[in-house]
Amino acid sequence: MAGSLEGKVALVTGGGSGIGRASALAFAREGAKVVVADVQVKGGEETARMIKDTGHEAVFVKADVSKASDVEKLISTAVRTYNRLDCAHNNAGIEGASASTADCTEENWDRVIDINLKGVWLCMKYEIPQMLRQKGGAIVNTSSVAGLVGFRDMPAYCASKGGIIQLTRTAALEYAARGIRVNAVCPGVIRTPMVERVTGGKQEFEAQFIGLEPAGRLGTPEEVAEAVVWLCSDAASFVMGHPMVVDGGLVSQ
């Protein structure tokens, strides 16, 4: 796929680490200019530097995707910097606190939904008008296998990720005839800082996660990034509204 996005401009939210960083690097490898967005400045700036070190173009923009003003500024900065926006990976998200449905606090529920689900909606709200002006574009939203199957003690996270799938399908239907393709990726258990926080770095907890995976291992951010880049490329020109599972077989059980 080398050079599949040559001359394109790609935006990645949550680009400071994990899947977002891998996606940003993959977009750059394929020839895109990359706008890296994250609320964490250090990680986001580091990703942008990593891209520049490979000889490609990148800019970092600090943005909290749960705030409309931040997202509007993010999209306007991307367009002001590179004159257009061709691809967007709306990836920023958090796991929230672990608790059963009855014990989940309202504060935790609101925070997870605001970042994971409202954040994806806000990104599309401002990305889509720009893509319409250009008469085309591709959007990939990060959902999860937790949007397809239930997980104990993660009610807000599961709800947010399931909502992303339905939001993706809705937007795909609305804009398919207008040149904008909207899809989602549903990662399984991927070796990211989020998973490391959940396991606390303890081997026994990691082993439990590995036990969920028929592949017998955790996935890598790069494996998810390959799916994201493909969905944004012309090779996926007839793929719309699809929640692509990248999970080592987890939901096939």
TrEMBL record:
Claim: Signal is one of the keywords in the record: no
Sorted UniProt keywords: Oxidoreductase
Cross-referenced SUPFAM superfamilies: NAD(P)-binding Rossmann-fold domains
Gene Ontology molecular function: oxidoreductase activity
Keyword Oxidoreductase (UniProt): yes
Superkingdom to which the source organism belongs: Archaea
Similarity comment: Belongs to the short-chain dehydrogenases/reductases (SDR) family.
Protein's name according to its UniProt entry: 2,5-dichloro-2,5-cyclohexadiene-1,4-diol dehydrogenase
Originating species: Candidatus Methanoperedens nitratireducens
